[in-house]
């Protein structure tokens, strides 16, 4: 079932604006991005999610589109998105969001941008319920406080707590069902507070799944402390592995260097830089740990700037980028594959130099050399290649 999400970011945020420096809450910066973006990132991590429609105040729409384009360029949501203007009421904004959904969308989640703490697990529970036959489904958590019904300052009743649930977003629906219910809502001018209420008034049953206590809505000035506490908490470190591979052809060119160490008597290599195949593979492996592309993107062989440049300089630049990303290298394992020359005399020198370049201890670095038993281009002494694996810890997102 093809699913899209509508992220509602069209509110005025009047209760929170004074404490947020006049900003509407959906545009408050948290961890380097506005609140509305964080929900989109969570949704993008759900394999079944195919796109997002953002709904913004009409007066902020162009600004928001520019923000989205910039965020998506550098952080890459990985799925299509649209941005449309909202309406006067929440239900009007949802209606506009539904109208922007592509025709092939079959199920839809509606989410408040001011709830940045939801998880992919919650999204998957909702999608599972829709797949199992629910026409509408909402996340809910049990109420722990006693609730009173009050009229004009006087308690008039105490509902049975066991029957009460606190409701959250995202809320999931069969697209056609939600669309028809909203058409009726507009025609009859119902006043509703969420999309489940629209289905309820239309007589359509709404199921529940277990919500998340941490899935809190940023509404009041004191709620900003939740963002601050999340920001000040060090993110968990996650293990990552990067892999690199590089090849150079033998021929008139650069004197052989491996791991930054000159190899006397080795064949010359054809290269734009200094031709250090081992450090090139290692640089690519390090880029792999931070999602940084490949060495050719950063140091193209068409640029005169990198003509005969030391590969150690290139590795240092990438290591600096990795450090800024919070990467902690735990182990480096490299292998050089060549028929000539024999590298046994140089392996320890190469290992020490890699330790120096990456500020690692000897136990963290391993250097190997092998042949391919006279097979392939290396076996025919036409060239040399290297592979590298870097294991590391990177801050979670």
From TrEMBL:
State where 4-CDP-2-C-methyl-D-erythritol 2-phosphate binds. Answer: 246-248, 272-273, 294-296, 370-373, 377
- Pathway listed: Isoprenoid biosynthesis; isopentenyl diphosphate biosynthesis via DXP pathway; isopentenyl diphosphate from 1-deoxy-D-xylulose 5-phosphate: step 4/6; Isoprenoid biosynthesis; isopentenyl diphosphate biosynthesis via DXP pathway; isopentenyl diphosphate from 1-deoxy-D-xylulose 5-phosphate: step 2/6
Gene3D superfamilies assigned to the protein according to its UniProt record, in alphabetical order: 2-C-methyl-D-erythritol 2,4-cyclodiphosphate synthase, Spore Coat Polysaccharide Biosynthesis Protein SpsA, Chain A
Q: Is Membrane a UniProt keyword of this protein?
A: no
Site (Positions MEP for the nucleophilic attack): give the residues.
161, 217
- Which Gene Ontology terms cover its molecular function? 2-C-methyl-D-erythritol 2,4-cyclodiphosphate synthase activity; 2-C-methyl-D-erythritol 4-phosphate cytidylyltransferase activity; metal ion binding
Spell out the residues of the site Transition state stabilizer: 15, 25, 272, 371
The similarity comment for this entry is: In the N-terminal section; belongs to the IspD/TarI cytidylyltransferase family. IspD subfamily. Belongs to the IspD/TarI cytidylyltransferase family. IspD subfamily.
- Identify this protein by name: Bifunctional enzyme IspD/IspF
Which species is the source of this protein?
Desulfovibrio subterraneus
The organism that produces this protein has a lineage beginning with:
Bacteria, Pseudomonadati, Thermodesulfobacteriota, Desulfovibrionia, Desulfovibrionales
- What gene is this protein a product of? ispDF
């Amino acid at each position: 079932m093809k699913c899209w999400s509508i992220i509602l970011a069209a509110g005025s945020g009047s209760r929170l604006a004074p404490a947020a420096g006049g900003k509407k809450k959906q545009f408050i910066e948290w961890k380097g991005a506005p609140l509305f973006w964080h929900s989109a990132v969570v949704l993008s991590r759900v394999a079944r999610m195919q796109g997002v429609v953002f709904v913004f105040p009409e007066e902020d729409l162009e600004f928001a589109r520019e923000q989205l384009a910039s965020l998506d360029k550098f952080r890459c949501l990985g799925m299509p998105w649209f941005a449309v203007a909202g309406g006067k009421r929440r239900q009007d904004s949802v209606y506009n969001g539904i109208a922007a959904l592509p025709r092939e969308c079959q199920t839809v989640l509606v989410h408040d941008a001011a709830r940045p703490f939801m998880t992919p697990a919650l999204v998957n529970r909702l999608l599972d319920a829709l797949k199992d036959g629910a026409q509408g489904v909402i996340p809910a958590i049990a109420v722990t406080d006693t609730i009173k019904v009050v009229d004009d300052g006087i308690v008039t009743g105490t509902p049975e707590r066991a029957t009460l649930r606190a409701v959250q977003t995202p809320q999931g629906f069969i697209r056609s069902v939600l669309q028809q219910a909203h058409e009726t809502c507009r025609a009859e001018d119902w006043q509703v507070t969420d999309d489940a209420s629209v289905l309820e008034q239309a007589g359509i049953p709404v199921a529940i799944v277990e919500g998340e206590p941490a899935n809190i809505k940023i509404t009041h000035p004191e709620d900003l402390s939740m963002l601050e506490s999340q920001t000040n908490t060090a993110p968990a470190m996650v293990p990552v592995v990067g892999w690199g591979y590089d090849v150079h052809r033998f021929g008139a060119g650069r004197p052989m260097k491996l791991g930054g160490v000159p190899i006397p008597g080795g064949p010359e290599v054809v290269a734009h830089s200094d031709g250090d195949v081992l450090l090139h593979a290692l640089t690519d492996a390090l880029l792999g740990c931070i999602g940084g592309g490949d060495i050719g993107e950063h140091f193209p062989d068409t640029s005169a700037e990198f003509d005969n440049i030391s590969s150690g300089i290139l590795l240092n630049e990438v290591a600096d980028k990795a450090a800024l990303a919070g990467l902690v290298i735990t182990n480096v394992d490299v292998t050089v594959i060549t028929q000539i020359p024999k590298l046994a005399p140089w392996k320890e020198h190469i290992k020490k130099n890699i330790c120096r370049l990456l500020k690692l201890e000897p136990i963290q670095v391993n250097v190997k050399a092998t042949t391919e038993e006279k097979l392939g281009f290396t076996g025919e002494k036409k060239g040399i290649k290297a592979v590298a694996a870097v294991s590391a810890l990177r801050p979670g997102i």
